[in-house]
Amino acid sequence: MISPDDDRRYVLTLGCPDRTGIVARISQFLSDLGGWIVEAAYHADQSSDWFFTRQSILASSVDLSVYELRERFAEVAAELGPETEWTLHDSTAPKRVVLMVSKDGHCLHDLLGRAAQGELPATITAVIGNHRDLESVVRSHGIAFHHVPFPKSGQDPEARAAAFDEVRELVDAHDPHAVVLARFMQILPEDLCEHWAGKAINIHHSFLPSFVGARPYHQAFTRGVKLIGATCHYVTPELDAGPIIEQDVTRIDHTYRVADMVREGRDIEKLVLARGLRWHLEDRVLVHGGKTVVFS
Amino acid sequence: MISPDDDRRYVLTLGCPDRTGIVARISQFLSDLGGWIVEAAYHADQSSDWFFTRQSILASSVDLSVYELRERFAEVAAELGPETEWTLHDSTAPKRVVLMVSKDGHCLHDLLGRAAQGELPATITAVIGNHRDLESVVRSHGIAFHHVPFPKSGQDPEARAAAFDEVRELVDAHDPHAVVLARFMQILPEDLCEHWAGKAINIHHSFLPSFVGARPYHQAFTRGVKLIGATCHYVTPELDAGPIIEQDVTRIDHTYRVADMVREGRDIEKLVLARGLRWHLEDRVLVHGGKTVVFS
Amino acid sequence: MISPDDDRRYVLTLGCPDRTGIVARISQFLSDLGGWIVEAAYHADQSSDWFFTRQSILASSVDLSVYELRERFAEVAAELGPETEWTLHDSTAPKRVVLMVSKDGHCLHDLLGRAAQGELPATITAVIGNHRDLESVVRSHGIAFHHVPFPKSGQDPEARAAAFDEVRELVDAHDPHAVVLARFMQILPEDLCEHWAGKAINIHHSFLPSFVGARPYHQAFTRGVKLIGATCHYVTPELDAGPIIEQDVTRIDHTYRVADMVREGRDIEKLVLARGLRWHLEDRVLVHGGKTVVFS
Amino acid sequence: MISPDDDRRYVLTLGCPDRTGIVARISQFLSDLGGWIVEAAYHADQSSDWFFTRQSILASSVDLSVYELRERFAEVAAELGPETEWTLHDSTAPKRVVLMVSKDGHCLHDLLGRAAQGELPATITAVIGNHRDLESVVRSHGIAFHHVPFPKSGQDPEARAAAFDEVRELVDAHDPHAVVLARFMQILPEDLCEHWAGKAINIHHSFLPSFVGARPYHQAFTRGVKLIGATCHYVTPELDAGPIIEQDVTRIDHTYRVADMVREGRDIEKLVLARGLRWHLEDRVLVHGGKTVVFS
């Protein structure tokens, strides 16, 4: 019997070449098991002929463990062709997030507050900072803080590489579902981008593709735009060019100096990162061809 | 064979009591016919235990006329229980819209412009006005204009009833898919609300439920709100209380007099009405329990 | 000599009956003193014939203390008539804020984070809670927390009055510039509303005047609105009817349950309260006739 | 005596190097003449040390013609230095707008509708099109339509130059206050950009500086952005790089094909162009250093 308070879900995501009958096949599979579909989303991208779906099933409606369900579903997925990519998770399985920060703490404070409020579907297990400015607030939440100093940009490439090696080891020790660059301000080396592909998430303080790279608010000020924004995206080797998860903007006018944009922009950065991270952690983001499908 | 330029769709909408297996049943039905699903949306409302879906199928992928498809689908619908409500339309079947206006022409101009641009999935077959102010612009688009004068509000109830009888006859002669009160400024009598239930659409110039009734911008000015809005909703006997299809707002500040709100509000009214009307005409709006599900 | 890093301002606000020559009089006064105007805003409200201004002057450009400047300006204000209301503050004078909370901590976390980031132009000197849930996070920021339990709504009016007396004493001991009801969930008694008139600020979780009173998200769900919002306003004896400082909304759709609205609404509540509080603390909000002029 | 229905204003705009006492000087000048200031806006840009103001004075409160007022004010302006730029207009003096269009008519329909509604503070005196598609709708509004065919992009530079010469002559014959490229789709030659500097206004269908040049919606689709926008800007020789007057965006998601973006984008284009054009015609836009100050 299904309790209304039962929040455990089996969440299936799937992407495969589009063709007739996929929805029927998947929904019949779930129906045969008695699966109660709480949320179902489908998308057929006509430009790439790719099919995407996300299904959220009341776990208690299915008399199988997530492992058994995976085993059974693997047969369905196999029918859909060798390119098919899918995941199937228990929504109550613990998820871990590692944050990487520098000196600017607004995104950190926001995520810590959300975690304390129970809003984040994950545990922040560690924070790595290249400065110590945010150490005490992190520790006051009972979260580990690792200080890994970095040489100045462009200097001492060996020390830089060593620092990134240390970061990699520290992060991987937590086996996180997301590595969040919460205004980390250091460009990840290519190998790390690839190693964390699909789980390293960055917040960039502009409405990409405008104002790639450093000091986007200064660029925005110089150009005289009437809106500023922020972009949450997966990190890829090409700077600020990864698949976009979420973006938003806020209105400014001629009275805004760069400092005012920085202040207003923080609120957009916090919101956009928090939304993007939540969607990622809830398996709502599917990546294909450098773009995302977000079943929010 | 399916042509990429083929825009003909069979659009199915359905609402029924929720239970396991509905998606499987419908998608299997479509799959068995070779139906290529271009858009599919589902929603299960947990508060009312009601299931909603809208499916858009490439008509050329199914070897049936819309009449034959309806006949076949009726069996599926019957299985889903006697409360089931469904529609199945050919997206290329001509649709007709009748507009009702008074003196203020911004919504009319906007809809005429959209019709001229081919943006509206329907033909505006007639405009009824209780004043002649907008007659010439309507006629310049080659559309019939009917002038039906109304007595002043609260005066001569018999003449008023007669005028509404005339309106009803004029409108019904076009058998329209939507009767749009494009700032008509007269309150429909209860019997007409019921007669046109589900196809009479009103645009109210406030963010409902704030500022019901007359002069909402004056009410907004007096209250000192910081945003003004507009609401597109189905007309029901209770004033401004019908199911909401779409709403939006725009920011104002202390410098806005009522006249400024009226000017800015027009742009929101136009957008909100145009969106709501398009969704209605594309069978994207399902009504249940005084609220809408909009598969936009 | 004026240093570009000099952030000290003398901030003048003034409201008076409108007439010709006010701007000339004030700007001549400032000009005669060598005052460098960094920000100047004016508003003449035609419906009430009232004039409003806010001027921000580089303090170092004027060879007077704020007390001397006040004394001098009093003569100008006297010329503008007996109804004239004005304030003149040194922007670097310390400002104090007291927060009142219950169990829900999102606004508290947000304001604490902003304070820690140096974003708030004030010090949070104390937090009063009718529950102990948020005590530890407040104390971890080195801020005093006072627990004042309240009887259940509608019960034991004497204990209730006593609790409010205690709150009043605790708050007044800090002589705060703002008393923020950060989701306090208790209705202030009339005498306290009047005692804190112009400095008690509430955040209401709806787009007022829609959904006054309790459980606004439930009301919004029932009505089926397509946007939800929040309103920051000064507290007055009439519930949720005080002068509105700031409002904002966010889009929802039929998939949002009440719990989803609560989650999304929190982000709007935080933003709207933070903006409203900052404007209040920076002397940007002038109240007249139940409405605000916000020189943001 | 001042009638509340009197809408005639003398509108002053001024930009000059910033220094102490400018506001006092201008407001004293106006006060001495008995000028009733209805709207006053000031801005001091600290990065360029430039001062901007716009003042709207009730014309009937000053016992001078606009010519006499200009003569008097010239002395004040002279005191403010040789770099000072200013204008002084009677708001009721007729203003003329010429539109340039191609095949896509949504901006044209929108502006014609606004003109018919009396929303535009100007007369559309002519429309120039490089195709005849929109000729009939223009003529139905009683407005002259000039057809000037253009060779295909990149072909026959001589015919192209001749066509632009014809356009220039046709436009200049109307002595317009604004030349609006309402989706004209042809790049103006450099000399024409300079000849119409400060009055040629373009609407670009992206949120600049993203997606400069051709097919911005295709660029947006490829990049996978989550918002699309439009930008209204003054035309300068560098493509899509002129001072931005207004911008706005609308949310899209993965379900939007290019055709859907085109449809949704039209609504933003119309709004952004209409706002920008109105502000330009009401002397609300001051240009300095490649950016605009908009006293909206």
Q: In terms of topology, how is this protein built?
A:
The structure is a homotetramer of 296-residue chains.
Chain A: E1 9-17, H1 22-32, E2 37-45, E3 50-58, H2 66-79, E4 85-90, E5 96-101, H3 106-116, E6 123-129, H4 135-140, E7 144-147, H5 157-172, E8 178-181, H6 190-195, E9 200-204, H7 216-223, E10 227-234, E11 244-251, H8 258-281, E12 285-288, E13 291-294
Parallel strand pairs in A: 5-6, 5-8, 6-7, 8-9
Antiparallel strand pairs in A: 1-3, 1-4, 2-3, 9-10, 10-11, 12-13
Helix pairs in contact in A: 3-8, 7-8
Into which percent range does the helicity of residues of chain A fall? 25-40%
Largest sheet of chain A: 7 strands, mixed
Number of strands of chain A: 13
Residue-averaged pLDDT of chain A, rounded?
Answer: 94
Low-confidence parts of chain A? 1-5
Q: Biggest interface, which chains? A: A-D, 32 and 33 residues
- The CATH topology label of the largest domain in chain A is Rossmann fold
Tally of domains of chain A: 2
What is the structure about, briefly put?
The first copy, chain A, has 296 residues and is α/β, with parallel strands linked by helices.
Q: How would you describe this structure to a colleague?
A:
By secondary structure, chain A is an alpha/beta fold. The first copy, chain A, has helices spanning 22-32, 66-79, 106-116, 135-140, 157-172, 190-195, 216-223, 258-281, and strands at residues 9-17, 37-45, 50-58, 85-90, 96-101, 123-129, 144-147, 178-181, 200-204, 227-234, 244-251, 285-288, 291-294. Chain A is built from eight helices and 13 strands. Chain A has a seven-stranded mixed β-sheet with strand order 7-6-5-8-9-10-11, sandwiched between helices. In chain A, strands 2-3-1-4 form a four-stranded antiparallel β-sheet, with helices on one face. The first copy, chain A, folds into two domains: 9-90, Alpha-Beta Plaits, CATH 3.30.70.260; 96-294, Rossmann fold, CATH 3.40.50. At the A-D interface, strand 11 and strand 13 of A face strand 11 and strand 13 of D.
